[in-house]
Amino acid sequence: MNNFLNPLIETISQAIKKQQFGQEPKELYEPISYIMSLGGKRLRPVLTLLGYRLFQEDIRPAIKPAMAVETFHNFTLVHDDIMDKAPLRRGQATVHTKWNDNIAILSGDVMMIKVYDLLLDVAPELLPSVIRAFNNNATEVCEGQQKDMNFETRNDVSTDEYIDMIRQKTAVLLGLALQLGAMIAKAPEKTQQDLYQFAVDLGIGFQLKDDLLDVYGDQAKFGKQIGGDIIENKKTFLLINAVALATGSTKATLQQWIEATDFDATEKVQAVTQIYDQLGIKALTEQKMNDYFDQAFAILKQMDIGDQQKEWLSGFAQMVINREK
Amino acid sequence: MNNFLNPLIETISQAIKKQQFGQEPKELYEPISYIMSLGGKRLRPVLTLLGYRLFQEDIRPAIKPAMAVETFHNFTLVHDDIMDKAPLRRGQATVHTKWNDNIAILSGDVMMIKVYDLLLDVAPELLPSVIRAFNNNATEVCEGQQKDMNFETRNDVSTDEYIDMIRQKTAVLLGLALQLGAMIAKAPEKTQQDLYQFAVDLGIGFQLKDDLLDVYGDQAKFGKQIGGDIIENKKTFLLINAVALATGSTKATLQQWIEATDFDATEKVQAVTQIYDQLGIKALTEQKMNDYFDQAFAILKQMDIGDQQKEWLSGFAQMVINREK
């Protein structure tokens, strides 16, 4: 399978390396080159190339739209990292740490403008629908981020609200990425919608997997601090369920750890993980995650595309499902 | 003249009142309604309506593009106010003060997306060139803001660099606003370029007038604290020239005031204004400002439009030239 995806990843990596958004003032453009070069899995632009490749052999017309999606994604990282006061991104200093908040705000703003420059590459007759689809999803990403911030100070977040938040913050951009490729390839509207829904469901599963890896991942493979979410009381699917299900002394202990201000991080991670284990939170989250992966495959199965195309999408899904980082 | 501009201002005010960008989460959309409702002179959207009205009677097709320009302008205010740590905007609390920095970043981001939604209202065949023109100028606005921030820590800013900065940060958006109206009205390319240059020159004069009003304005009319730029050592055209022209004890006194950390604000404003007077900075700035206004009128004179149309543009220019706030 990777034999198929690798050239797509290579194509987008080369395009990112070659992309030059501007020169002066350098305070504005160096941070953009920096964040774009930090790497990551490039899932979103690969989805755009893949969405196009399903219908057309030569993927070159999908490269700039794929870059638009990746640039938008990186823009959200730059601004989210300011909001979250995150020091590190992919193991490197975040833009606002390496430069400062103002530069991170403004270079992020320029990235947003450049997203639309890249979208101008699509055929003019497609531009209105491409921008409309892009904007609807980009707006949802911002709404998801605001909800995520709102959740920080709320104690009554339901799992439905949580799923809706990660759908907006994370999953819809995967949906848009795949749909965009299909749009540019002029795929039928119904197929575009199926591809969108397939990738959104995959994206929700992807984020639930992320919540799981934070607690149950392999430190060496995951690359991030195991238990980071626990230390910060991040309202993940795991914590929301644990708070809802815990009773008696377990509830009290969990609450103590949540409220603790002075604690040993390792001790907190161990204690909360133990509560998760006790309450069967891992299985519960895996169940929910697999529900979404199953939904994605159900959509894929009935999709009006060739078997070879289904195999490619299935291969991409497997990569997401099996990820350990 | 105002008899002509007033209906345009009224049209855009009504459109802003009716515009609803979204509902939930309210933390994201209330700040947008708030900043958009604070008013201001609405110069930019009026320019777009005017640019259209030069060629077409019924201005309705220009309303959404005019809203796009005003929304972009307000987006820059929201983000610039975070960067400048400004507590007040138009006499009211800035978004980041009334809510917080994160909400100001994110609601600004949503405004940017909504700008492109509003631009989708233009005829599809015009969309690529509209977005391209918009993006080129929007990028320059960001570059101008970055240069303005860079100037804060530099002591060798030349007047040419300063003019270039205000051209990017302030003037090009006026140029784009007017050109956009003409674009949508399908005016000839050459006339569009003339209109752009006319409004850019007007915009540079407009900003130089702003620099002057900060020192020599009438407090009651200006609405802002007189001498605000002096108190903050803001590198305006006045200060840059004063630093360049002062010699001997005047230079030393000016330098002392610039470096002073503990001072009486009124005393500093008086002392620096006195140095400006001594060096003839007011006349020098007026000269430069009038050069740009003259250039604008020279372009207007040779423009390939009717006399009535020239009168409208001239009336707009007079309003900018005569402004006391």
Automatic annotation (TrEMBL), chains A, B:
Q: Which InterPro entries match?
A: Isoprenoid_synthase_dom_sf, Polyprenyl_synt, Polyprenyl_synt_CS
Annotated PROSITE patterns: POLYPRENYL_SYNTHASE_1, POLYPRENYL_SYNTHASE_2
Can you tell me where the transmembrane regions are? none
Q: Does this entry carry the keyword rRNA-binding?
A: no
Q: Which cofactors is this protein said to need?
A: Mg(2+)
A Pfam family hit: polyprenyl_synt
Which controlled-vocabulary keywords does the entry list? Magnesium, Metal-binding, Transferase
Q: Which family does it belong to?
A: Belongs to the FPP/GGPP synthase family.
Protein name as it appears in the record: Isoprenyl synthetase
